[in-house]
Amino acid sequence: MDTNQPVNDSQTTEVSVTVDENGTVYNSHECDDTDEYPAWFLERLREFRSEGHLVDVTLCAEGKEIPCHKLVLSACSDYFHAMFRGGHSESKKDKIEIGGVSGETLEKLVDIAYTPKYTVSIENVQSLYEAANMLQFEAVEESCEEFLTDRLRPDTCLASWELADKVSNKNLSAMAKNFALTFFDKVCVNENFLDLPVEFLRTYISDNDLHAEKEEQVIEAIMLWARHDLEERETHLKELLEFVRFSHVDQDHLKDIMETDKVLAGVPGIKELIKNQSVQPRTCKLFQGEILLLGGVTKDEDGEYSKPNNCIYRLDVQCCCVDITSLPRSLGDNEGSAACVVNNDVIVTGGKKYSSQVWRCRASHNSSTRLRFLRTERYDHGMAVL
Predict the structure, then answer these.
(1) How far apart are CA 213 and CA 23, in angstroms?
(2) Neighbour count for residue 350 (Cβ, 10 Å)
(3) pLDDT value of residue 331
(4) Domain of 141?
(5) Closest Cα to residue 222, out of 249, 240, 200?
(6) 204 SS3 class
(7) Of 185, 240, 251, which Cα lies nearest the Cα of 212?
(8) If I label 235, which of 55, 156, 332, 352 is the partner at 20 to 30 A Cα–Cα?
(9) Does some domain include residue 21?
(10) 329/354 same-domain check
């Protein structure tokens, strides 16, 4: 055997020697193709599907026909696993009509069953999540949940909350709801707010944890929503205004808007609602501080942790992202740096390539100042304030 031959790391070969009672030596090779086998096997399955080889079922939705393999569907989906086990009539059919899902989305899910790479986007996440939930593609559901959780913003939280309720995801629903309640002032001026169904809006503004610093904001949000389609929504104004705590509205301001806003003044029973003085104020969450997240690495498009994080993420006390600002370019690559807070200034030390630099960052002003150098270069270290 040539010991100078290069070793293929993706394939491990073990040579074992067996000697029988007559002294005969038998050599055997145990091969491990763990790294190469999954990709090779999936590629062969995709080829079989494209060739129609061993295809044993065709899924149909909205006139679209999708040939595939029962075995592959069963491996990826508990729904199809139960369907094809033999207890259902569909297990004996060559063509199966799938209701409640579009042909395009069904084809996307079947494609995902044959490949480890797929894209979740703002455009497809709702249809993909609902279909994956209905057809029990658990891995796809998890990807959609992660996508929505990472992108909770004032313009996305309401849709995420509504979608999470539809697919019965209590964790995502709670996170999106909390975000929407906390950032009411930003959410209610967003375009998505104007498209809310009345039932969802009722649930939103009636919550005692709605973070409205002034009750006037709630009135303005309701009227803004109603005027978006006044002819259709005017009849819902009274039921929505019942959730306004009028006793906590500035009475002079209320008198002014009643005189100038004919739509509000014309709501049946509005004067009786205003006279109600028994409602308790909302639980207004006043933030006493915030959390700044910086350093480390973030995921690239392939989901690998490889991109240095050169931003400061500003979080509230419930760890919801409020704002994102870029670190000054003068700091360079801060992967492996450490940070602490002194008198509301962020002190950043060290970094990639064992830096000895020390910087003072004032996040509120997006400014930075270089301080004295450390005596020793630092990387992947810790720092604390005493």
Answers:
(1) 90
(2) 24
(3) 60
(4) 55-151
(5) 240
(6) helix
(7) 185
(8) 156
(9) no
(10) yes
Q: Is 193's pLDDT higher than 80?
A: yes
Residues 188 and 265 in one domain: yes
Whether residue 3 is predicted with pLDDT greater than 50 in this model: the reply is: no
In this structure, are 177 and 126 located in the same domain?
no
Q: Is there a domain that residue 33 lies in?
A: no
**Is 235 found in the same domain as 177?**
yes
For residue 196, being part of any structural domain is answered with yes
Q: Are residues 178 and 99 in the same domain?
A: no
The token pair at 303 is: 């989901």
Q: Which of the listed residues 248, 275, 302 is the one where a domain comes to its end?
A: 275
DSSP 283-315: --------EEE--SEEE-TTS-EEEE--EEEEE
Tell me if residue 177 falls in helix, strand or coil: helix
Distance of CA 20 to the CA centre of its chain: 61
| Pairwise CA distance, residues 332 & 334, whole Å | 6
DSSP per-residue letters across 309-354: --EEEEE-TT--EEEEEEPPGGG---TT-EEEEETTEEEEE--TTT
**Eight-state DSSP code of residue 90:** G
Question: Same domain, yes or no, for 67 and 147?
Answer: yes
Judge contact between 322 and 312, C-beta under 8 A: no
Beta strand 57-61 with 95-97 is parallel
Structure tokens at 288: 């006493």
Q: How many domains are contained in the chain?
A: 3
The enclosing domain of 200 has a CATH number of 1.25.40.420
In the numeric block, the tokens 């995420």 are attached to 160
Type of residue at 201:
L
For residue 138, the domain's CATH number is: 3.30.710.10
Query: Domain boundary residue among 223, 248, 275?
Result: 275
Which of the 8 DSSP states describes residue 249? Answer: S
Quick one: pLDDT band at residue 379, thresholds 50, 70, 90? Answer: confident
Could you tell me the end-to-end alpha-carbon distance of the chain, in angstroms, rounded to an integer? Answer: 63
> Is 99 domain-assigned?
yes
Q: How confident is the model at residue 207 (pLDDT cuts 50, 70, 90)?
A: very high
| pLDDT for the residue 19 | 60
Using left for φ > 0, alpha for ψ between -120 and 50, and beta otherwise, residue 344 falls in left
pLDDT in tens, 306-342: 677 777 777 766 566 766 777 666 565 667 788 888 8
